[in-house]
């Protein structure tokens, strides 16, 4: 791999990305490292992180406030697609990667860097998401991944950092690896690597244990406009405020925990814990509204599109021609997905209990079994004869 002179490094403030700074300069001959920390609503105090990068040898330390872009341009399009990888994981961490890649490419262009770098290891999904997204956005940029190549254990990495003047983590590090943004948390490693071991309550931070949740149900109403959530209980909220409020409301009832063994793109299985309170309920509510406002054939065909969409986002192809084509289809389906869903939150369950829309295709006069029934029952016999004709012919020929 050709080395670079000026590099923009995706920076989190952790051991690996901090050690990347001196490592790139001393081992790979990089002249200047610019760091970029992305604020995606994870709640970290980012000024100490910015300062730590400078102390570790960065020439410039950038903080990008990208929470609004994250929710409006990445989370809500995925919500319109009801995106659930392997029908369970709502891509809360995966959705952040194409945005961080875009921020890296934008910074590289602004500062005249010839490469970007990240701290991903060689067996995760994120390396694929970063590398492929960067290649799609600017194929001329080199992508450096020191942690994929340096072959150091965590202890060796910390020792290398100390030698370069980077203090080792003060507190005893948690056995878990946690990724956090406004959409939720993903937790792996430590005791969780054994899929037989039940997660301890300590791994959770956004959702209450069922035994600590309220003993009375809470009802909320989520309003949608063209597929995007816009209000809670009639109060209009911007995307970031809506997710923030919903995380708190839903997490308080112990809703949004996922414990799954998933199939990584690199061919291994991984046991993952996700906490996604707002997103899990939003997808349920959005699906419910679609059932009211989309025709049956569109709803059923869209399910296959959603599965494909979830896979390509998980697999790092956000900026791909297929993803763009699917976005156009999905956006077309959302023109009338507007209305309100009423949800009952109670003891770990979000139950859809009411739905209404000005574009509802539900016709009470056709659906009722009461005296107001307008359905033409006599028409059913002829319809059934024609519908069943191929089966009848087949049966006669094969008796």
UniProtKB/TrEMBL annotation:
ATP binds at residues 10-18, 38, 119. The keyword Membrane does not apply. It comes from the Bacteria. GO terms for molecular function: argininosuccinate synthase activity; ATP binding. Residues 6-167 form the Arginosuccinate synthase-like N-terminal domain. Keywords: Amino-acid biosynthesis, Arginine biosynthesis, ATP-binding, Cytoplasm, Ligase, Nucleotide-binding. It is found in: Cytoplasm. Pathway: Amino-acid biosynthesis; L-arginine biosynthesis; L-arginine from L-ornithine and carbamoyl phosphate: step 2/3. It is an enzyme of class 6 (ligase). InterPro entries: Arginosuc_syn_C, Arginosuc_syn_N, Arginosuc_synth, Arginosuc_synth_CS, Arginosuc_synth_type_1_subfam, AS_cat/multimer_dom_body, Rossmann-like_a/b/a_fold. The keyword Iron does not apply. Pfam families: Arginosuc_syn_C, Arginosuc_synth. Its EC number is 6.3.4.5. GO terms for cellular component: cytoplasm. One of its GO terms (biological process) is L-arginine biosynthetic process. L-aspartate binds at residues 121, 125-126. It catalyses: L-citrulline + L-aspartate + ATP = 2-(N(omega)-L-arginino)succinate + AMP + diphosphate + H(+). L-citrulline binds at residues 89, 125, 129, 177, 186, 262, 274. Belongs to the argininosuccinate synthase family. Type 1 subfamily. NCBIfam families: argG, PRK00509.1. Homotetramer. This is Argininosuccinate synthase. It comes from Chamaesiphon minutus (strain ATCC 27169 / PCC 6605). The lineage of its organism: Bacteria, Bacillati, Cyanobacteriota, Cyanophyceae, Gomontiellales. The gene is argG.
